[in-house]
Amino acid sequence: MKTLSKLCFILVGFAFASCQWSVKTKEDKVVFKDTLRYSTDGLITFPVTLPGQPANHKDTVVKASYVVFDGQPRLNDSIMQKLSGIFTNGNADIKYLHNTSKFLLAYADYLKKHPGWIVSAYAKVLMQDSSITTLEVSGYTYQGGAHGSSGTYFINWNTKANKSITLNDLFIDGYADKLKAVAERIFRKDEKLSDTASLARDYFFKDNKFALNDNFSVTPIGLKFIYNQYEIKPYAAGITELFIPYSQIKTLLRPNSVVGKFIK
User: Fold this and answer.
1) In terms of DSSP H, where are the helices of the chain?
2) Mean pLDDT of all residues in 103-124
3) For residues 21 and 100, what is the distance between their CA atoms, to the nearest angstrom?
């Protein structure tokens, strides 16, 4: 698994680094005044001839589309790290990013043993204003078996501070238990559970106690959290969304945070 993880990262890194791949360039996105300007490299594909196929037969086994921000190296690095982490189960390692020779050798060997492997990913902008840029980063991998796996993650970027936005940046000190209580109340309502119903049978929470993760996106009306496949439910249940309106947590939010302007 460790070798495969390294291989996956090399694969994604090569997608971003190699000019030999097929890249369909799109025009710059039109964004609002005072927001960061970005472009998209469109769809990047890596066609190969799989074992047993004619030499002129190509299968696309890699797809990656992502945005690139003008003059924002830290944000661009965060996007690439998040994309790469999808294919390495969260263990992204930047040193493999441009090692194309290792990639070619490892990938060729892997295809001989595991034909049919597919990976795809994208990073897109969900929201922009003068102080916040929110992106969705999502990917799918198929490495054999009954089904593939997918994941959706977010980057919330403070454009003025040039850094990622964390929950600690948004909430006052000592917020964790109170935020979790609000989140659990919403979760139980969404799942049609009573206040005292056990979480042991249908969910994967540690010690059967509700927990809020840090995979969230900032929106103008609240915070959207996502639990990915297998995180708290079986694969067949897919992802679970949990939306917390600002109106229910406004006493916990820092008044000078980047979401303060959304609070009424």
Assistant:
1) 2-17, 73-87, 100-113, 167-170, 176-190
2) 65
3) 12
Strands (E), the chain: 22-23, 38-40, 44-48, 59-65, 67-69, 118-128, 132-142, 149-158, 163-164, 216-218, 222-227, 240-245
CATH number at residue 176: 3.90.640.20
Token pair of 27, please? 């025009």
Give yes or no: residues 59 and 37 share one domain.
Answer: yes
Residue with token string 């990656």: 64
Which pTM was predicted?
0.77
For residues 17 and 83, the answer to whether their CB atoms sit within 8 Å is no
**Residue 42 DSSP code:** -
Same domain, 81 and 102: yes
Predicted pLDDT of residue 114: 62
Structure tokens that stand for 253 in this block: 């939010």
